[in-house]
Write a structure and sequence with these properties.
Helix content: 55-70%
Order of helices and strands: EEEEHEEHHHH
Largest sheet: 4 strands, antiparallel
Radius of gyration: 27 Å
Number of strands: 6
Oligomer: single chain
Distance between the termini: 71 Å
Strand content: 5-15%
């Protein structure tokens, strides 16, 4: 191991020993952890993920238009997938703007850019919106929205199970009956007959 000795200091691979200390073994100063010299790889990865989800949002919105947004008695099969894909696209755009601002302000200068944004949370929200749009026509609004809300409340936000249950029921079953019973707007029902018999 190569050592550099100068002015009474002994340095070896990022440590400094103080010879005058009565306990030199306990006076080793650890060097701060090194950071990646170049965060271009992180930025390219981020840009690729953003582009992927934005394209998914556009394709989903276009396919939803083909299904039809409205029918004679209310929202059509493409209504919720269309607006969920629009919401996903807006989230991706907000993500892009936030990351660009972080780069311009120097917040990501010497550190990896992923420290500025909670990537797992952003990706989880976008993926869960895609799953929600896919399940809406299969399981119906009530079940799909209940699973979506309960997942984000109980698992992601770490809320208590009973709080998550109440909010998820209100946002799924409660909203469904407000639209269907009070506003006379039909929301998607499950494609399974046995679920339809119990109002789902």
């Amino acid at each position: 191991m190569r050592r550099l000795q100068a002015d009474g200091f002994s340095m070896a691979k990022g440590t400094r020993v103080l010879p005058d200390s009565p306990h030199p073994a306990t006076d080793i100063v650890d060097a701060p952890p090194s950071r990646p010299a170049d965060s271009a790889g992180y930025r390219r990865l981020e840009l690729g993920v953003q582009a992927f989800f934005f394209i998914v949002a556009i394709v989903t919105a276009l396919n939803s238009l083909d299904l039809g947004l409205m029918v004679a008695f209310g929202p059509g099969p493409g209504f919720f997938p269309f607006y969920l894909s629009i919401a996903m696209g807006l989230l991706v755009l907000a993500w892009i703007v936030q990351s660009r601002r972080a780069i311009r302000s120097g917040a990501a200068g010497d550190t990896a850019i992923d420290e500025a944004i909670d990537y797992p949370h952003v990706v989880t929200v976008i993926v869960s919106l895609i799953v929600l749009a896919a399940l809406m026509g299969v399981l119906g609004y009530q079940i799909a929205m209940f699973l979506f809300l309960y997942f984000h409340l109980a698992i992601r936000a770490k809320r208590t199970w009973y709080t998550s249950l109440i909010i998820a029921l209100a946002g799924s079953v409660g909203v469904f009956h407000v639209f269907t019973d009070l506003l006379s707007v039909t929301l998607p029902l499950s494609m399974f007959g046995f679920l339809n018999t119990i109002g789902l």
